[in-house]
Amino acid sequence: MPAPSDSSIIRRDPYAALRYSDFRLLLIGRFIASFGGEMLSFAIAWDLWLRTRSAWALGLVGLVQIVPVLALSLPAGLVADRYNRRRIVLIAHLATGLCSLGLALLSYTRGALPLIYLCLFGIGVARAFNDPASSALIPETVPANLFSSAATWNSSTWQTASILGPTAAGLIVWLLDNVTIIYALDVVGAALFIACLSLIKGKPLPLAPKAATFMSLLESLREGLRFMRDTKIVLGAITLDMFAVLFGGAVALLPIYATDILKVGAQGMGIMRAAPSIGALLAAFLIAHLPPMKNAGRTLFIAVAGFGLCTIVFGLSTWFPLSVLMLALLGGLDNISVVIRGTLLLTHTPNEMRGRTSAVNSVFIGVSNELGYFESGFAAALLGPVIAVVGGGAITILVVLAMTKVFPQLQEMKTLDEPESAR
Hints:
It is built from 16 helices and no strands.
C-alpha cells in the first residue's frame, strides 16, 4: 500500500464529527437547551437588577448555583461512571425544566426573592449531576479520532446559542417588557432536549464497576482525584481557565454597564451578552478549518493573557462599540481555552473515569463562572464596577504568569493528540 502524501496527512475534514447522526442529535438538543438557558440567565440578571439595583443581588445568583455544584459534583461524577449517563442527563433536564417553571410562576406573581434563589439553587443541583454525565456522552456518539472535531463543534453549538439566546431575550424585554415568557421558553427548551436525547442510540462503552461498600465508594472517588492530580497537562489547563474566568468575570456586571455606564438599556445588554459568543463562534470556525495546533500549550497561555487584557479595556471603556468589540475578543480568546481544555479531557482520560474527571472539571468551571459572578458582584458592591472589572483583568494576567511556572508541562505541550494511555 503506498504511503499517504503529505497533503493527505495535513488535510482533514472539519465536519467529520457532524457526519454521525447521534452526534447531530446531541448537538441539536444541547443547542435548544443552551438557547433557553442563556435566555434565562439574561432574564434573571435583568429582572433582579431592576427590582433591587443591587450588585450584591447579582452576585448571589452565582453563589446559590455554585454551592450545590461544589458539594455534589464529585459524587455525581462517580454516579456518571457507574450508571446510564443518558438517563442521568434526562432526569437532570427534567429537574431544570421544573425549576424554570417555578421561576415563570414567581415572575408572573412577583414572588419573593428568596424563592427565586431557591429555584436557582435547584438548577445548580441539576447541573451538578448533568455536567459530568453530559460531558461523557460525546464518546458514545463519535470515534476517538474525532474527539477534537467534536469538542470544537460542541463549543460552537453552545456559543451559537449564547449569541442568539441573549439577543432574543433582549428583544423580548425591549418589545414586551416581560421576562415571564423567557422563563416559559426555557421550560420548552428542556422538554425538546429530552426528546432529542431519547432518540440517540449511542454505542455502549465500559463503565466502572459499582462500589460494594461505602469505603470502596470513597476509594473510587480518591482514584478519580489522584488521576486528575497526576495528569498535569489536564490539571494545568482547567486550573488556568478557572482562575482566569474567576477574576475576569465582566459578564456578571453587564446590567450595571448597560444601565449606568454605557446607558444602552435592555437591547444594548442583549448585544453585549451575545458579543462574547460571537467572538467565540468565529474562533471555533477558525480552529475547525485551520491545521491542528502545533504549540497548543503556548497558544493556551497567550489566549488567557489576551482574555485578561480585553477585560481591562472593557472595564475602562465608556464607548459602546469598543465595549462590544472587547467582549467579542475576550469571547474568542476564551473559546480557544475551552476547545483545548475540552479536547484534553476527552483524549487523556479513559472512558471508565470520564464521569469523575468531568466532575472535577465541573467544579473548576463552577468556581470560575458562578463563583466568579459572586466575586464580581461583591467587588463591584465594595469598590465599584469599573475597579472590579479592571482589577479582575489585571489579576488574570498575573495568574497566567504564575501558571507558566507551576505547570511547565502545559506550556511545553505541542499537540492535542490522544496519548496511548487514554485509548
